[in-house]
Amino acid sequence: MSFAAEQRYVSYGEALAYGLAAGGKSFATTPTQSGYLSIFYRKVFGLPAGSVSFMMLLSGLWDAVNDPLIGSLVDKTRTRFGKLRPWLLVTPLPFAILTVVLFGGPSFMKSVPSVGVGLIYKTAYMYASYILWEMCYTFADVPFNGMTTAVSPIPPDRTRIISFSTFISGITAGASQTLLLSLMDASDKGVWAVSLRTVFLLIGVASAVFGGGLYSLAGIFTKERVVQSVRQPGIVEIFRVLAHNKPLLLIVVSNMLMSAGGLYNVFTTYYFAEVLHLNSLKLLIDIPGGAVGIGTYPFIPAIKRRFDNKQLMMIHFVSKAAIGVVCFFAGFRHYASKAVAVPVLMLLNIVISIVNTVKNIISTEMIGDTIDHMELITGERNEGVSFAVSSFFGKLTGSVSTSIATAVLPVIGLNYKTVNGEQVAVKGAKTDFYIWMFYVLIPQLVNALGVIPFFWYDLTGKRLESIRSELAVRREKMIAERADTVTEQ
Predict the structure, then answer these.
(1) Rounded to whole angstroms, how far apart are CA atoms 146 and 367?
(2) Mind spelling out the 3-state secondary structure of 189-238?
(3) DSSP for 38-97?
């Protein structure tokens, strides 16, 4: 078996299976994004802002222990199927079950009041179900992302499988969001005589069955082809190696700064729910951005020939900050008008969709490059810990952002009171303006801070080509040595 640069290992069928699995994961996790989760706990489960805010913060701190340990367990795994694939085979079922448990809370506890002892029970349920779900998700997500680097030793294969996954994920995330927002509006407007708690239970079941089913394709159809060392590295050794991976650490710091823009997800949800009072209007606004994002994929090879990954990341940050400023002032006085908000937000989403489409592919590629970089130095591959640490810091700052956003809502005048068993919004005079500002402007400016670490990132050009060439030679030698050992036995 040769690892020649011109050879392709990943068929279109395997890439499609991985892409569908990514789509299933995206379908299942879209409702748990910070904005929907915040409104779910506040408006549907009837929990106070302080409890939800603290839970989000605690879950981010829990990830500090949870994610790296799970990543190290993945890196220590050695089976005839590889170290990543076994986890992809066993996690879909518990992930599906816990998704139903998470969103079924309001239905399972519908007779429990949101005061006194009842509030304690509901809060405990929220903490336990979300933290267990988050832990299971990490067991699913870390090996799944790691497979993008282990499925093939050559960049074209990796780009193909990442492209399939981001493309299909975008479609299924849109489908999940469409289903959720349409059902929420049908319930809110009385079109469908079903409560919001039942809507979220149905979303949990759909996410478990459809999303979990598609996600299972990753373990069934994808294969690990990059040669791993037979020796199991120790946990301390894994983290010591990671600490010397400067390019990865720069990406991690950038993700931390960028994820602080997670305010966007929370205030997006509240903007459509409580300012425009039409959740599904977001679907209309997303249509042009989604179409343009899909249309961006064929141009990615040409874009990558013109710019390296580092340059593309910088373009991503600057573009989002610029369009955020433009759109904020374009809707400055008319943020509650659908006639003004719709075209302005369409423009915002188009630009964000273009740069995010490119960024979602190259950011995963770049982590793979850092893993190759350390393999050349140490002879070990650390997909588990590398992706776990990268995602952990992003989740930590994202959780902190969600926690802050949820805590800010009462400060800017948005509260809820119970009327006839339902949670009804109560707003201050400038609440709508502040929601607009935290939705359109602030997240894009905060996101731009992520550009700073890339000024020191140097894993590009001839240096990267040299690493790939040397690894190809080393891997061929490892395969030949193992073949000789088997022959002697």
Answers:
(1) 9
(2) CCCCCCCHHHHHHHHHHHHHHHHHHHHCHHHHHCCCCCCCCCCCCCHHHH
(3) HHIIIIIS---HHHHHHHHHHHHHHHHHHHHHHHHHHHH---TT-SSHHHHHHSHHHHHH
Residue partners of 27: CB distance under 8 A and separation at least 6 = 172, 173, 175, 176, 207, 210, 211, 214
Contacts of residue 434, defined as CB under 8 A and 6 or more positions apart, other chains included, come to: 412, 413
SS3 label, residue 425? strand
Q: What percent of the chain has pLDDT over 90?
A: 33
Structure tokens at 58: 């605690």
Q: Phi-psi category of 277—alpha, beta or left, where left has phi over 0 and alpha has psi -120 to 50?
A: left
Q: Could you tell me if 131 and 62 are in contact, meaning their C-beta atoms sit under 8 angstroms apart?
A: yes
Interval 267-303: pLDDT, tens: 888 899 889 999 889 889 988 998 898 889 888 888 9
16: how many CB neighbours lie within 10 A of its CB?
Answer: 16
The architecture of the domain spanning 13-469 is: Up-down Bundle (1.20)
pTM for this structure?
A: 0.71
Say which residues have a Cβ less than 8 Å from residue 57's Cβ, sequence separation at least 6: 399, 400, 403
Task: Please report which helix (H) or strand (E) contains residue 422, including its range.
Answer: strand 422-426
